[in-house]
Input
Amino acid sequence: MLLSTTTDAARDFIQIGHSDPHAVHAELNDGLLAAQAVVSPKYLYDALGSKLFEAICELPEYYPTRTEAAIMERHLADIARTAGHGVTLIDLGAGNCAKAARLFPALQPLQYVPVDISVDFLRDAVSRLRQQVPHIKMVGIGMDFSASLDLPDAVKHERRLFFYPGSSIGNFAPEQAATLLRRIRDACGPDGGLLIGVDLLKDRQTLDAAYDDALGVTAAFNLNLLRHLNCLVGADFDLRDWRHRGYFNEACGRVEMHLEARREAHVSWRGGRRRFLPGERIHTESSYKYTRHGFLQLLERSGFGRTQTWTDERGWFMVCHARVQ
Ligand code: AVI
Output
């Protein structure tokens, strides 16, 4: 779905496929009317949602960010040796670009290409980073890479290293994850690779706390999705009618986030309405957790091989480099 491409005057920020309001409306309408109501987690990330996610990453309960950073820091030299220097570093879901920036001294990328759906947030992050690191060529790309990974010619083809940290791959069901990994493999070119962070299966208590923190930041992040829907489709969700639920579903090997009606709630939006009964839920996110073996199998099925992995002492998180097979 490449609707249009616009390039900033300075040619350093390219937006691909401006989101089609009709498609967004159809997707949200279908999800809200489904027997089990569902909204894609990508709608968690408007400007405020992106800031709330940054705050989540600071929480004591939310171990993934900290654990991944510690693995990267500890093994940076080895990771850089494995991934190679002077690469074209393509940062998927770059957010504030902080994770990739920490790799710069070791990787010395020839070009840095942050990609994110949250365009305004990314634009600000890139312009700040460009001032701090003027010697690295950067081109920011605003796009929904879960739909397509058709990168513009401004992105170098040589030695592409896709960087997909934070276990964002976990927000896709395994079949969708395989589709995305295959798409990344195809965009890599024969000399390309992938550096990816993956959250590993662990005890329920740790997982439950990470997705339902004492301060209520994850609750605010989840509830903000309703505010975003109010803007996107003119809905009239009253946030006070809803509560956050976040817990580990062991049978499915994933953490789930839901918004649960506290009381009967009548909600209207452009072209639709629904009565939610007390306790009825909208499924807003799944976060799959893997075993090392399970994830390496997924990579292999997606056309990647020659993998190398690094983990923390508790075996909670894994950083993995894989090459195109
Ligand atoms: C972005 N993603 C990997 C986060 C996760 O852990 O699944 C999103 C998140 N949801 C609640 N807390 C964090």
